[in-house]
Known about the structure:
By secondary structure, this protein is α+β, with helices and mostly antiparallel strands. It is about 35% helix and about 15% strand. The structure holds calcium ion (3 copies). One calcium ion binds next to helix 13.
Amino acid sequence: MGTSFTSKSISVSALALTLWLSPANTHAQLSDEARFDMLSGRVELADGDEDWPLVLETIIELNDIERDEPLPPMLSFFEGKALLRAGQAYAALAPLADYIERAGSEGEVYHKALAFYDEADRDPATRQHRAEEAVEQQAVIDRRNAELNQLPDFETLAETGTPVGSSFHDCEDCPEMVVLPAGEFSMGSRRSEYGRDSDEGPVRTVPLASSFAVGKYEISVGEFERFVDDARYRMSEGCQTWADNVWTDERSVTWQDPGHIQTANHPVTCVSWDDAQAYVDWLSGHTGERYRLLSEAEWEYAARAGSDHAWSGNNDWDCQLGNVADDAFSDEVGSDNEDRAECDDDHYSPAPVGSFAPNAFGLFDLHGNVWEWTLDCWANDYRRAPDNGGARRNGDCTRRVQRGGSWLDTPQVSRSANRSSIGLTTKASSIGIRIAREIDENIVE
Ligand SMILES: [Ca+2]
Ligand SMILES: [Ca+2]
Ligand SMILES: [Ca+2]
């Protein structure tokens, strides 16, 4: 849409809307794009007694039209106002906030939007909605805590005989771990795999001689906070965040405020490889067990969970599999990457850990949500990689391998075989932590 909009040129008249929506109207024969052009270019909407339900209906229709660019800010203003007048104060907040953010200047309409936002914010219905949300969130946290309290420690688990696949934790607040079986697997991808890069070969068989345990989820904000508080850990400043389709490095962005909405149950981000190391060192000291990051081979073994498909058990992406760049993401950031997931996974930023289906090992979010640091130094292929599943110590050790893609990457990037590397000290709002724990006992299935 090349047109630029001002408050005057964009005003929408109820009369024009009525004509436009009428089935007998020849304009209904025009293409969606043309209808949008016509409507947004010529209309006039006073602040009087407009037919707000009709305005709302029209804006909803406009929202459903596929286009390359987002609707002009004024339509968000009208949508917010229409929702407010239709008695939907809570729903009005988002479009009004969108207008305020995108207004571009602080004119009369901007100040009206602020006043409407304030009105919607103070509405009893909004307060009621927020109270209900808080109750729901608390219920999720309580359920999770109750589950965690039921978990056995490892010794109790081992005594029961068949621990492979079961969960345990080493202290009340410790991350939930899942016991993976020893085994071997084919690491890397075939040339025919869509999205494959040459660094995913040569394909080789990797044996993992012992059972080990892997974090059921990415490390959460709440889990990381316990470490920071207990160890009085100090983080360096700054983190890269993705906004307006570019990466920016802001000093004020931190793991506590990473530029996206998060709760204690979201995956921690804005942590460097060194921070991840400090976390597992602390957890090892705290529990007397050997916690560490996964080797790249262990990560792929955990992600594949016995499958040689592109994504654990699947060669076609569907939105149950994980949180990647999807329709929700495209709508939010206004990007239109043709390799995005063509479905709606309901999250345009990180999702709370465990929001998607587990894989065959009972692990969550290997594909997408946030990238996961591994131990290995970076190298362009597997030619000199260890053949025992351990971490690679040759290659470029100023960079480490990250695996699994993230909320802002395409499904191809989240494939089991995909590899990527990033500098040790880099922090980004798309990278987090998954941990492993060594098991001394020989586990029998
Ligand atoms: Ca998503
Ligand atoms: Ca992940
Ligand atoms: Ca790659």
